[in-house]
Design goal:
single chain, alpha/beta, Alpha/beta knot, five-stranded parallel sheet, two-stranded antiparallel ribbon, 9 strands, elongated, binds adenine
Length: 202
């Protein structure tokens, strides 16, 4: 799977994919993530990508032109299955959505900043709008990182048997059980007997 991410703060998206399971996915060649700085498509030499909103109101809006040019240029290289806008008023992310997206080949994620992106871009280019929860973040970057992680770990071959996504919480609509490791007795608080019985099924 290949994921392109469009952002005005690429620095926020360096570390999340350089460690642990996302790193392994990329090292194995199962996932590629490319972060693109929207300023590359700025409307002037000052790097402008946002402007005041019509009708008044505080906060800037990300302009049509840089976003449209970026999406069109990137779309020439990749045939995107979905162009996803991360936004608090999108569809709330859950395991089912992550499962569905993990079956795709190419995704483009757009991170909003300031007051968000011009509505016309949403209407014209965005095929899916996703929220990671009912709260407002400063931008879509951390939400994109969450989404990439939720999808990336589902790609076949990324997880081994021990960490299999099939035993994750929510994967079968059940929460995973509590887990324990050594020692058996931590300051008088013991691991439940059933886990010590040697009967895995139980
Ligand atoms: N951008 C700002 N807040 C967000 C949220 N909760 N989910 C996705 N993108 C966002």
């Amino acid at each position: 799977m290949h994921i392109d991410i469009l952002t005005v703060v690429p620095e926020l998206l360096t570390s999340p994919f350089e460690h642990s399971i996302m790193k392994r996915a990329q090292d194995k060649g199962l996932l590629t993530v490319q972060v693109h700085h929207l300023r590359k498509w700025a409307v002037n030499e000052y790097g402008q990508v946002d402007d005041y909103q019509y009708g008044g109101g505080a906060g800037m809006v990300m302009m049509c032109e840089p976003l449209a040019n970026a999406i069109e240029e990137l779309s020439k290289e990749k045939n995107y299955d979905e162009i996803i806008y991360l936004t608090p008023d999108g569809e709330r992310l859950n395991q089912q959505i992550a499962n569905t997206l993990s079956l795709k080949g190419n995704l483009l994620m757009i991170c909003g900043h300031y007051k968000g992106i011009d509505e016309r871009i949403r209407q014209q280019y965005i095929t899916k709008e996703i929220s990671i929860g009912d709260y407002v973040l400063s931008g879509g970057e951390l939400a994109a990182a969450v989404l990439v992680d939720a999808i990336g770990r589902l790609l076949p071959g990324v997880l081994n048997d021990e960490t299999s996504a099939l035993t994750d919480s929510f994967q079968d609509n059940l929460l995973a059980p509590p887990v324990y490791t050594r020692p058996v007795d931590f300051r008088g608080n013991k691991v439940p007997d059933v886990l010590m019985s040697g009967n895995h099924k139980k």
